[in-house]
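Our preliminary data section would be incomplete without showing what the modeling component actually yields. Below, a chain of 279 amino acids is followed by its predicted structure, encoded as tokens that our downstream tools consume directly.
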Amino acid sequence: MLQRSQCVVSAVDRIALCVAVANFRSTCPPKEPIAGNLLEEIPGLLRRQRRARQMSRSIEAVSASSALSFLHGVLVSLSVLAELFRGIATSLSGMQAPDWSQEERNLVLEAEEFKSMLKGVEVLRRILWRMGLAADIFLPVADGEAVLAEAGDLLARDANLLRDRYSRTGAYLSEARSAWAVVERGLAELNVELPRWDPEESFEAAGSSCQGAAGANSTAPLCSLCLLPALPPFTTGDAAVASLWKGSLCHVQCANFWTRHMQGAKILSDLGIVLQPFA
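Predicted structure:
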């Protein structure tokens, strides 16, 4: 995988892929004997193994296109998510204002519009998780920073561009997660509970109790936006179902998020980014 990444023509894409490969290697379970109780370590090792396999598939998919373009998609997604969650948090906070009676709150909580909003929040929660995994592939950690520092054939302008994109993506990821935490607290204060959802049990993560389980996950097509496994079109009963749109396969949720929120995002013009994930 590293050799394939090093053959990419664009220096920026090549270094971004090499950083991703370094992250993949650090995610793989250690080859050395496990110190301590092996039985206690097995669940964590299996999660790392599943995650490493997913990262490998995602890196291979990106190497056939553009790593920088994918990083831009993650950056914009997280920026938009942070903004959406801040808006939702503000609305929930407003319902806790002293001039609101409990009767007024109950009327809002029982309204179909509020229930529809909650369904949207469920989707945004899952997309945040997906884009967080995508960011983890490309954001430099210790080994990735070393790759970037040793990139002798990378022009200073390109190195600065990559560092800027890494910095912005990391900042937006932190902002989005912090804003989501505020939304969770706001819902809790209103005694509103979202349906239980464990990311580790989802199809994208090859959860053992999910539809299709690990075998199907390892061969399933990847979503064009988040690069996580997707279920075939017309599959029922799972949020990981995909749809064919503009020649590409993507999660229905990701495609809707793109059309409703991303393609007109202000940050695109601010940074001069052109995104064409479904071209």
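The chain has one domain: 2-271. The longest strand covers residues 242-245. Preliminary results of this kind motivate Aim 1 of the renewal.
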